[in-house]
Design brief:
Chain lengths: 116, 114
């Protein structure tokens, strides 16, 4: 069984500052993929970044970086230089590898509000 | 532009009525999914389909039904057997190529039972 835990229900961040969103996971799978999605108020889920458990380097995509600590089962998302458009809900998700459609698990999400 | 279209965006239903949510994609993706989202919770998988004419139950399939007659379309029917259908429903798709397997989502349908 897999479980994703996001302990921060809501966070405030000042514009242009960095923010770290916590995500811990529990799995017995040897190989897995970790995802972060953004959900703005419009409702659509937007894929942000991916990290494979076999990747030795932390993933980065523009202002997003994933701080992956395998031994601690942690996959925190760092958003640098926050913008007002970053205000949204953020979800951490995980699935085993090879791909298993049934086993994609989502955390409960963290709401980020960026202040001007 | 390629993407996933869900309709209607908002839907109201009386108790005891079935309702069908539409999901269409022009991304040429093989796999499609339906998720349910409740406040304060993550997404939960209702049904998924990896190829045409085939689909599997997810974690919360009771009270729902789907069909996959065309690659582009994966409609979800919320039946009167679903005891608490008021929720936000998200449709997603995924390509079968590539190794990350990220999902592409529609904008969702919000169903309210009166």
């Amino acid at each position: 069984a897999q479980k994703i835990t996001q302990t921060q229900p809501g966070m405030f961040v000042q514009e242009k500052e960095a923010v770290t969103l916590d995500c811990t996971y529990d799995t017995s799978d040897q190989s897995y993929g970790l995802f972060w999605y953004k959900q703005p108020s419009s409702g659509e889920m937007i894929f942000l970044i991916y990290q494979g458990s076999y990747d030795e380097q932390n993933a980065t995509e523009g202002r997003y970086s994933l701080n992956f600590q395998k031994a601690r089962k942690s996959a925190n998302l760092v958003i640098s230089a926050s913008q007002l458009g970053d205000s949204a809900m953020y979800f951490c998700a995980m699935r085993p590898l090879p791909l298993d459609d049934y086993k994609l698990s989502f955390g409960a999400g963290t709401t980020v509000t960026v202040r001007a | 532009d390629g993407g996933i279209t869900q309709s209607p965006k908002y839907l109201f239903r009386k108790e005891g009525q079935n309702v069908t949510l539409s999901c269409e994609q022009n991304l040429n993706h093989d796999a499609m999914y339906w998720y349910r989202q409740d406040p304060g919770q993550g997404l939960r998988l209702i049904y998924y389909s990896q190829i045409v004419n085939d689909f599997q139950k997810g974690d919360i399939a009771e009270g729902y039904s789907v069909s996959r007659e065309k690659k582009e379309s994966f409609p979800l029917t919320v039946t009167s057997a679903q005891k608490n259908p008021t929720a936000f429903y998200l449709c997603a798709s995924r390509t079968s190529t590539g190794n990350t397997g990220e999902l592409f989502f529609g904008e969702g349908s919000r169903l309210t039972v009166l």
